[in-house]
Amino acid sequence: MSKKSLLLILTCLLFLFSTNACKRISTKKENNKELVLASFTVLADIIQNVAKNDFIVKSITKPGVEVHGYKPTPSDLINASEAFVFVDNGFGFEIWSEKFVSNLKVKRITIADDLDPIFINEDFYKGKPNPHAWISPKRGILYVDIIVKSLSEFRPSKRELFEKNGEIYKNKLSKIDQEFSLFVKNLDKDKRYLVTCEGAFSYLANDYGLNEVYLWPVNAESQITPKRMARVISLVKKKKVPALFCESTVSNESQMVVVNETGAKFGGNLFVDSLSMDEGPANSYLGMLKHNLNIIKRGLD
Ligand SMILES: [Zn+2]
Q1: For the chain, how many structural domains are there in total?
Q2: Distance from the CA of 43 to the center of ligand 1, in angstroms?
Q3: Residues 182 and 290 in one domain
Q4: C-alpha of residue 215 to centroid of ligand 1, in Å
Q5: How many Cβ atoms sit within 10 Å of the Cβ of residue 226?
Q6: Ligand 1 mean position to 84 CA, how many Å?
Q7: 172 within a domain of the structure (yes/no)
Q8: Do 190 and 153 sit in the same domain of this protein?
Q9: How far, in Å, is the centroid of ligand 1 from the Cα of 301?
Q10: Distance CA 185, CA 195 (A)
Q11: Labelling 174: which of 45, 54, 81, 145 has CA 20 to 30 A away?
Q12: Would 168 be classed as within a structural domain?
């Protein structure tokens, strides 16, 4: 028995695992396909569209789950040890991933290694890269390129297939990109304000020429200050911003205060760090982008 299998079995016994997790040890490759493990659902969906049926693709964090500060479970470790590659976003998004992969012998792809960051300019996070690059369709296209390139390096015989799948998927992203570009182009310059709860839309704002305004910079963990709240209220009034938004995984309570103070309408919830459940409006990356951009269009138009 290899050291790795022994470790897995010991881990299993130690944590008195659900039969499901233990069963997986004996079925190392489902249907003889290798497992690609992503850190979050958005990334898993992009990878699935490149790999199609050639790999099993799974996400460690499930839909609707908080990703930044996720605490991996023993069963996540078992799944990861079976994977051929672990893919994470980087830019400090998954606070847990360094420690998580440190004891695993899997290959790793970190998307941020090949992306240009936008830096956060505020508070405690000043100078750190904003992690939410996928939120812009233009960057989503880069995610696809990075995944195609990296998976092809690991499995050169599949290069053509990955490239073909990537092209088809990128065409769909380009369509979303072009539609949103056109929308912003036709929007009055003084109406180009995107006011959200969290500063998760920097890449979208930057890539499409919107002014980004938010109540807190990265995660709900940094509390909103009265000073920041007052600044947002004053700006919304001054610029007559018609609609304000919030992210689906955080409370919109503070944003509703701004709504009540300014008379702007609440435009809706946007998806950022996680896809929705299957029955939700954002159960794929393309679906998430379409949902977000439609809500923004409806609010600002
Ligand atoms: Zn986030």
Answers
A1: 2
A2: 13
A3: yes
A4: 14
A5: 7
A6: 26
A7: no
A8: no
A9: 26
A10: 18
A11: 54
A12: no
Residues 56, 194: one domain? no
Q: How many residues does the chain have?
A: 301
Asked, for residue 165, whether it belongs to a domain, the answer is: no
Give the distance (Å) from ligand 1 centre to CA of residue 250.
10
**Residue 169 CA to ligand 1 centre (angstroms):** 24
In order, the DSSP letters of 81-124 are HH-SEEEE--TT--TTHHHHHHT---EEEEGGGGS---B--SGG
Domain that holds residue 27: 3-118+125-160
What is the Å distance from ligand 1's center to 47 Cα?
20
The verdict on 112 and 186 lying in the same domain is no
Beta bridge partners of 194: 212
Residue-by-residue pLDDT tens, the chain, 301 positions: 445 545 554 554 454 444 444 444 333 455 678 999 999 999 999 999 999 999 999 999 999 998 999 999 999 999 999 999 999 999 999 999 999 999 899 999 999 999 999 998 876 677 899 999 999 999 999 999 999 999 999 999 999 999 999 999 999 999 999 999 999 999 999 899 999 998 999 999 999 999 999 998 876 655 678 888 999 999 999 999 999 999 988 888 989 999 999 999 999 999 999 999 999 999 999 999 999 999 999 999 8
* Ligand 1 ion: Cβ-proximal residues, 5 Å cutoff: 273
- Shared-domain flag, residues 88 and 215: no
Q: What is the domain-level CATH number for residue 82?
A: 3.40.50.1980
Pair 42, 104 in one domain: yes
What is the Å distance from ligand 1's center to 298 Cα?
23
Let me know: does 288 contact 297? Beta carbons within 8 Å.
no
Q: Are residues 264 and 156 in the same domain?
A: no
